[in-house]
Prior knowledge:
Pectate Lyase C-like; mainly beta; 12% helix; 26-stranded parallel β-sheet; single chain; 6 helices; 34 strands
Amino acid sequence: MTMKKVLLLITFLSIFLVGCGLGGGEVTTTEPIIIDTENFIEISTVAELKAIEMNKSYILMNDLNLYGEEWVPLGTNSSPYLGVFDGNGNTISYLSITKDNNYNGLFGKVEGKIFDLKISDFNIDYTTDKITFAGGLAGLTTGDVENVSVVGNIKINNAKSNTYAGLLLGTSQSVLEAPYDLTAFKANLISSNQASGEIDVITERIAFVGGLIGKSFNSIISENYVETNLSVVANLNHVHVGGLLGHNFSGILSGFEIERVSKNLAITNNIAISTISSEAKAANSYAGGLIGYNFYGDSSDNYSETAIVSKGIVKVISLLIGEDWGSSIESNFAKGILTYLSQEEDENHLGAFIGRGFGNNEISSNYYTSDNDLQYLESKVSEEDSLDSQWYVNNLEWEATFISKFLD
């Protein structure tokens, strides 16, 4: 890579992180932390769970009930969880958070790995006046999350700032470390997870809300299943809301197409079933059955089923992706109905696969079912065919086990 490209990448990354509230602050020097990912400490009680150390690894030995606890998330911005947490197939139930900890969930901020865990009947419900991150599993992670199931509800009223909320994660991100060598970049993996529940967000500034993840930043997202009802209002700024992801950004590699493709920052084999109500009172409303706003994030072999009602000065809505920049969109199926509430001077963009696109959008071999009058009429499928498993086998070459998840 040329020095010019490196400098451009560094500048772009710095601007993006500060602009999205994901970077900035003072740089401090600390002693290196030794992280133990080989030895797993057993957890059998709530007290043991609350007392975990951030640099050690754990295995959950049985179900835990948090009823009656005001949960304090494990891991903070200054001291994130760094180890490996093995849920061992067990369930943590009745997680409750009513006070904003900045990063909210069973975990707050995570840089390690979490897998094979169930979280049931969680409830996150608070009022705040600062930037906030919320998810049933974690507010923010830079690590891998695999085979985690969450069932619960999130309700946030943010009087002054941005809100990042998803039933699994508020934000998932993988950042490029200095000296910004693209060959060393490794995306984090969010795979084989399930999420079910409702999210209700009212925020003063920007809303990033997704059924699975509010904002994903250079993450690989595959084989997840979501059923959700989403209601999102932003008073002064944009809404980004999607059945799977509210806002997806893979643009750290934009302009470096060979490297970007080689890193395969893909959204694949996901299922998102949702109802979405989106209102941006003074700005743009981006809403999609799969992704609300997508920047250089390639998607393939996903199934989206949605009903979207949108309000905003500019409404950009789609059965699949609201607004898309420079992505490859291939072999997806989208189903549902799009409704917008509009005044005469409003600007409206509706689409089957994207509401509005910029850059070199590559759209191929996608199909949809809808009562709306949308483009790509040659790709429209009858309601009868959309309920026939053999149709998906014949036209998309999907496997029966995948098809059964949304038809059965």
